[in-house]
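[#protein-structures] MJ: dropping Flavoprotein domain-containing protein here for a structure pass
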Amino acid sequence: MLVRLLVKAEAEVQVILTTSASAFITPLTLATLSKRPVLTEFVLNEQGVWNNHVELGLWADAMVVAPASANTVAKFANGFCDNLLSATYLSARCPVFVAPAMDLDMYQHPAVQANFTKLRGYGNFIIEAGYGELASGLVGQGRMAEPEEIIRGLENHFSGIGKTV
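AK: finished. C-alpha cells for Flavoprotein domain-containing protein:
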C-alpha cells in the first residue's frame, strides 16, 4: 500500500480522504498506517475545529493524489473546491502528483484526457494508469499505477534524476 511505503521511506504523510474514497478504505486503516488522523472535512467537530486547507497546502513538500477518480481530476482541472482535498489542491504550492484510477472507457474519454492535459499545463505530474483487470471486470488501461511506481516517480523528482514520471 502506498501510505505504508511512504512512511517506510520516512515521509510524513497526511491523508485527506474524500467521502467516495471512504467507501473503499476506512479512515482507521489509513490513520494506523500514516500514524496521523485522517482528514475528511473542513470542520472536524461541533466545537468548530477547522482543518485548514491553506496550511495543509503550504505544509506539504509534495501532494500525491492516489487514486484520483475522474471526478477529482475534473475538479482539479476546472478549479472546483467543494471538499477538503480539492481546496487543499488549490492551495498547494508543492509539486502535485496525480495517479488516476478509473474504468478504461472513462480513462480514454476525450473530456478526461483534456483534463489531464490541463493538469499537466498547470505543472502537475500525471502518473499514467496501468493496464490490467479493472473493478468493472473489463481489462484495459485504468488501474492506478503500482505504489512502487508512484514512489519511484517521487524519488526521481526529488533527486533530480531523469524523467519525473
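MJ: nice. The chain is about 40% helix and 15% strand.
AK: one more thing. The chain has a mean pLDDT of 91.
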